[in-house]
Fold this sequence. Notes:
- The protein contains 13 helices and no strands.
- It is mainly alpha-helical.
- The protein has one domain (about 1-265).
- Helix 5 (about 75-90) crosses helix 12.
Amino acid sequence: MKEAKSVFYAFFIGGLFALVSQTVTTFWGFALGEAGELFVPCLTLVTMGVIGFILAGFSIYQYFIEWSGFGAILPFSGFAVGVGNTMLEKWCEGASAGKSIWAGIFLLIWFNCIVALITVLIGVFCGMGNVTFTAAPEVEGNIIFPLAFVGGGLMCVVFQVLFILAKKVYKKCAPIHMLVFGWLMGAVLAPTGLCTTLMHTFGQGFGIMLPVGGYQMYNIGYLLTANGGAGASEGIAMLGAFALAILGLFVTGLCTFLLYRKNFDRKTAEQVHLERAEAKAKRYGAMVEAQKAE
């Protein structure tokens, strides 16, 4: 029953984050116009990271992770929170602030260098072969908002179900393993046109989810080599925008760590949530007793 609930929550919460992200990307699109179009995805990721760090700093985002799993982990806001939580995990174990922050930096380095390099190379090889594909046309108008909700929810459900099944086969399977898998699949499926179709159809229902990172890395590699490197300048610009987004994810992860530490010191999220539940139970009990007294 708990697993079934997590799948339901994964759809609802994942769809909600996708809907918020679609609103954010629409705002940045209007604000920057065509001249800043290249930086809209970067600013969207950073904005979602800010939303994540504020919620996680008050130990609220952690509820979403407990309830929905990949409904809160798969969106890029979850990755920013994951960086912060990596720092907090070390901090709550008694490590110094410096060692705790380094743990988050190390996560970003190996994930966004090693895994990203693999996905860039896939794009480079496909570009050298001038691989082409056909994708669905881009959806226009306000219909993109409900489509983003549905598409984002369904993608989170897929990853939540895969994670549940993977845990039954391999007990040590962790969310980070699924995130690496998702990032790689974003690049592996890119040459088929599926990722572009998902982006065109569901907007931020795909664009805010972690597999889009692999898809974007594939595009960078492809532009660097396709048609004799004719799109290399665009690929380099995309790489620069991606680097800014990663920097933004680190900053938001660090802010998560600092805000949470200020509010709860070395208490784990589980301890914080237990204390809140106990305090709520006491308040409810006091209300009942007061009503009986009347």
